[in-house]
Specification:
By secondary structure, the protein is α/β, with parallel strands linked by helices. It has 2 domains: about 140 residues, Murein tetrapeptidase LD-carboxypeptidase, N-terminal domain (Rossmann fold, 3-Layer(aba) Sandwich), CATH 3.40.50.10740; about 140 residues, Glucose Oxidase, domain 1, CATH 3.50.30. The chain is about 30% helix and about 20% strand. The strands form 2 sheets. It has an 8-stranded mixed sheet with strand order 6-14-13-8-9-10-11-7. α3 links the parallel β3 and β4. The protein is globular.
């Protein structure tokens, strides 16, 4: 069983880290105020505001910021300011044993995907494919906050992950399987193939989403994951949205799913609102979930915090 981090409560301290691309200081400051208005204390990683071209700081410096948050007993949760590019470069500098001994809620998506899955894979820690600092703004849908806090601040179990109204989950291959959920952003997962941090899907339920990739690129990603055995090894598949993904050669994202994934015969649910879209379901990476693709339900089978 994976390690559940201590639950997050109002009044707790959130440690902010910029682990990939830099983020404008004004955006950081306005989002931090939203968190403070919610009742949280904030501490800043040394390089939260840094700018070093494509990334905020060197890989070692960004990794040190993250490790310092795990080591700091006053920090209850670690929140990525954003994803962007370059998160995977910090992985060789992390001490997964220290992280295992100091479990904390950590949340993000996009390029943070490779970190979330590595923390589960190497530290056995449940992580959260959910909000980043950039999402803490007044106009964020209540659905997103409800999902985030239900996953990180309650012991609710089982927890049914429902899409927002009028965004129905769709079942394409019937079945009923239970196992740990892994995955997230396709670009990040494909970029980690062939490295020590390649995702392990053996006996897992694989969740995927993507953004700003034409369907020619999505075809390449899905084919690469197929050839790497990631769909062969998994128990079932959950496909999230492909937001702002241009159609190529009159072939849509849904066409690719039907052509490449449906023939595998594995339980398959599509249209999950999580990741880069307006609505963001909170997916606990490493927790046991059930997908019933006969009834189009996704259920988290255990508390994801302790």
């Amino acid at each position: 069983m994976a390690i559940r981090p201590p639950l997050l409560q109002r009044g707790d301290t959130i440690g902010l880290v910029t682990l990939g691309s830099p983020l404008d200081a004004n955006i950081i400051n306005t989002r931090v105020q939203v968190l403070r208005n919610m009742g949280f204390n904030i501490v800043f990683g040394r390089h939260v505001y840094s700018y070093d071209g494509i990334v905020s700081a060197s890989a070692q410096e960004r990794a040190d910021d993250l490790m310092n948050m795990f080591r700091d007993p006053s920090v209850n949760m670690i929140l990525a300011t954003r994803g962007g590019t370059g998160v995977q470069t910090i992985l060789p500098y992390l001490d997964f044993d220290v992280i295992r001994q100091n479990p904390k809620v950590i949340s993000g998506y996009s390029d943070i995907t490779v970190l979330l899955n590595s923390l589960y894979q190497f530290s056995n820690l449940i992580t959260f494919h959910s909000l980043m600092l950039i999402d803490f703004r007044p106009e964020t849908p209540a659905y997103n906050f409800n999902q985030f806090f239900e996953a990180t601040s309650t012991l609710t179990s089982p927890r049914i992950i429902q899409n927002p109204p009028n965004y129905a989950l769709r079942s394409l291959v019937p079945g009923n399987v239970t196992g740990p959920i892994v995955g997230g952003n396709m670009t990040s997962l494909v970029n980690a193939l062939g490295t020590p941090y390649e995702i392990n899907t053996q006996g897992k339920i694989l969740f995927l989403e993507e953004t700003h990739s034409p369907t020619t690129m999505v075809f390449r990603y899905l084919t690469q994951l197929l050839m790497a055995g990631k769909f062969r090894d998994c128990l079932g598949i959950i496909m999230g949205e492909c937001t702002n993904c241009p159609v190529s050669y009159r072939t849509t994202y849904e066409d690719l799913i039907n052509a490449l994934l449906v023939p595998l015969g594995k339980p398959l649910i599509t249209n999950l609102s999580s990741g880069h879209g307006l609505y963001k379901a909170a997916i606990p990476i490493g927790a046991n979930v059930n997908i019933n693709s006969t009834e189009s339900t996704l259920t988290v089978m255990e508390p994801t915090v302790s």
